[in-house]
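User: Second chain of the day. Same drill as before.
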Amino acid sequence: MLSDVYFLYSLFLTVKLQLKHTDSPVYTYQYDHKRPPQLDKLIPDFTKNVPGMSNSTTLARDTGGAAHGEELIFLFLNSYIKPDFGVESPNAKVRFNMVKLWTNFSKTGDPNSSDFQVKWPQLTRDSFDFLNISPELTLLKDFAKDRMDFWEEIYLAGKKLKL
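Assistant: Same format as last time:
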């Protein structure tokens, strides 16, 4: 639920507004790759002072998920972060996929490529499909629809309150 409150519902609202007011293509993804343990020491816990999220980086690792922003390690290697992925490793596959997707989008406005078996669809007002980024790319149809409907009801009810 914390991910919904802090990240996902805000993304949902932003996407809805963008789709309403622009014709620009919108693509969304969920990063769902468990980072290799050797990267644990490289990722500080940026949320240690945020109420309710005191140990989110450790929690994400221990529950098999990913913490907010972890995918950036795979896109932007630098002199401080030099993970050894190994050519055929799942980490190398995630890195290849992400770099290819982002590069394609930068060049053409469309992240898709014949290198992938999954087509990453543009969002529309009628569909909220996410690309699930892990070693194998998959598509999440109407991602978190029930949860977003729940938060939408709360948001709309809150807008009606007169304080």
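The helical segments are 2-21, 56-62, 72-75, 90-108, 145-160.

User: Great, on to the next one.
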